[in-house]
């Protein structure tokens, strides 16, 4: 192998679907059919590439990023779909320059070589050069963006694009650096992105508006803490990334429902959507076995900045509804345990109105958090493979001995990635859990 030879990572091998899950599908038909009923944008067998700058690359920083959160949602909400995700974000990128080599090379190597069926593109933060609006700078952005889109569509007929309006520069919790501020420039860039998507018959998604609206609310509640949501004014923290993932998933028509269960404590009648409920016992309290067809999104509300961001948004209503309703209870309050673990104590009225379990630390949330941790681990492995070996080590030059060592290194990382991907899929599968409601 010479140093000029391209090293292209093949698409991940398909992980066989687990036979055990197939036994649950008839009972969980509402969840299995959710993708069809809502016309979810992604399909079984899709290959998704996220393309962008450091705000996309942030998935490798260990802070939680929209690409990771999006992947976690898809795997935990639709555990039967087999979809590959590749993050091709590179810090410092713009439409006309990249730290990963010439943009045309980046597009061929980091998008087209993966043969994706779906590509998201978010660029613009660096393109405006952190200065007041300049028509010439905008012209470079406009022309460069069109070139990327034309290249991708020309090389990948039938690819479905999602063009993302740039996320905000935080001129909201802090004073603008000049005039109307840099975010006003990004808003103008975003309007072009929306127009281009419409012209191309593709989808556009707005990351700027929902995050900016959240920041305005957060500033009113806690001005000091609100500044930590986008700590350096550019790179969102996990709370803002959650809202960016929400915007992308809503654009893809993602269902909000995890599972919806209602139980009448007087008659024993059960209504369940997206879940199977059985072995109901009513003896002073209630107990039942429940198998949900999906998992809630893992949200770390122990982080103050994340909690503030989520509180100032519609995240749970829009993307993470897991209501449990129990009517006609006799006692004033009840303790809820799932698999023997105390989830909380709720009044009779709260349970009758419905408790959103997705907001709580349940065994299901812990299961989803472990899937998310595995996704982060696999993406870190891919980052090392791609960024540090495939690109940096090869393109910066090396000795013949190092050249000979590169293919075995890549194969070893690929094998570890596949192993982690199998763990992810296994970890996302439905699990039967025991619920107990005990009078307090």
Quick structural gist:
The protein has 440 residues and is an alpha/beta fold.
Tell me what you see in this structure:
The protein has 440 residues and is of the alpha/beta class. The protein has a domain at 35-255: SGNH hydrolase (Rossmann fold, 3-Layer(aba) Sandwich). 43% of the residues lie in helices and 18% in strands. It has helices at residues 19-22, 29-32, 34-37, 54-57, 66-77, 103-110, 135-155, 182-200, 208-221, 223-226, 238-251, 304-311, 315-319, 348-353, 363-395, 400-427; strands spanning 47-52, 84-89, 118-122, 160-165, 203-206, 260-264, 270-273, 275-283, 285-292, 323-327, 333-338, 341-347, 355-356, 432-439. The strands form three sheets. The protein has a five-stranded parallel β-sheet with strand order 2-1-3-4-5, sandwiched between helices. A five-stranded antiparallel β-sheet has the order 8-9-14-11-12. A hairpin with a 5-residue loop joins strand 6 (260-264) and strand 7 (270-273). The longest helix has 33 residues, at 363-395. It starts with 18 loop residues before the first helix and ends with a strand. Mean pLDDT is 90; it is low at 1-37.
């Amino acid at each position: 192998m010479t140093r000029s030879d391209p090293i292209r990572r093949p698409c991940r091998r398909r992980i066989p679907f687990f036979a055990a899950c197939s036994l649950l599908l008839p009972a969980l038909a509402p969840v299995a059919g959710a993708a069809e009923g809502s016309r979810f944008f992604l399909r079984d067998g899709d290959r998704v590439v996220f393309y962008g700058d450091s705000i996309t690359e942030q998935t490798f920083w260990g802070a939680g990023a929209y690409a990771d959160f999006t992947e976690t949602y898809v795997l935990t909400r639709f555990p039967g779909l087999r979809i590959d995700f590749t993050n091709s974000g590179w810090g410092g990128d713009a439409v006309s320059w990249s730290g990963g080599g010439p943009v045309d090379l980046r597009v061929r190597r980091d998008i087209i070589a993966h043969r994706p069926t779906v590509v998201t593109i978010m660029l613009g933060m660096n393109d405006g050069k952190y200065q007041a609006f300049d028509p010439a700078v905008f012209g470079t952005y406009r022309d460069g963006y069109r070139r990327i889109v034309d290249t991708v569509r020309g090389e990948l007929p039938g690819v479905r694009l999602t063009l993302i309006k740039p996320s905000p520069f935080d001129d909201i919790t802090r004073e603008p650096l000049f005039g109307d501020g840099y975010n006003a420039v990004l808003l103008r860039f975003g309007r072009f992105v929306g127009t281009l998507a419409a012209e191309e018959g593709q989808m556009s998604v707005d990351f700027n508006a929902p995050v900016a609206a959240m920041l305005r609310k957060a500033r009113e509640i806690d001005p000091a803490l609100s500044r930590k949501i986008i700590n350096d004014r550019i790179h969102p923290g996990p709370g803002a990334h959650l809202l960016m993932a929400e915007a992308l998933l809503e654009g893809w028509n993602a269902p909000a429902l995890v599972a919806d269960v209602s139980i009448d404590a007087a008659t024993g009648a059960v209504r369940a959507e997206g879940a199977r409920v059985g072995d109901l016992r009513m003896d002073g309290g209630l107990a039942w076995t429940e198998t949900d067809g999906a998992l809630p999104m893992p949200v770390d509300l122990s982080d103050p900045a994340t909690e503030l961001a989520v509180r100032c948004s519609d995240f749970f209503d829009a993307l993470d509804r897991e209501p449990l309703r129990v009517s006609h209870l006799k006692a004033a309050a009840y303790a809820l345990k799932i698999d023997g673990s105390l989830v909380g104590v709720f009044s009779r009225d709260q349970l009758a109105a419905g408790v959103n379990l997705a907001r709580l630390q349940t065994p299901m949330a812990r299961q989803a958090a472990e899937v998310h941790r595995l996704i982060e681990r696999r993406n870190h492995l891919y980052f090392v493979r791609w960024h540090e070996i495939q690109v940096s080590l090869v393109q910066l030059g090396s000795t013949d001995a190092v050249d000979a060592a590169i293919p075995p290194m890549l194969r070893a990382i690929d094998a570890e990635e596949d192993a982690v991907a199998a763990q992810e899929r296994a970890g996302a599968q439905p699990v039967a859990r025991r619920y107990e409601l005990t009078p307090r």
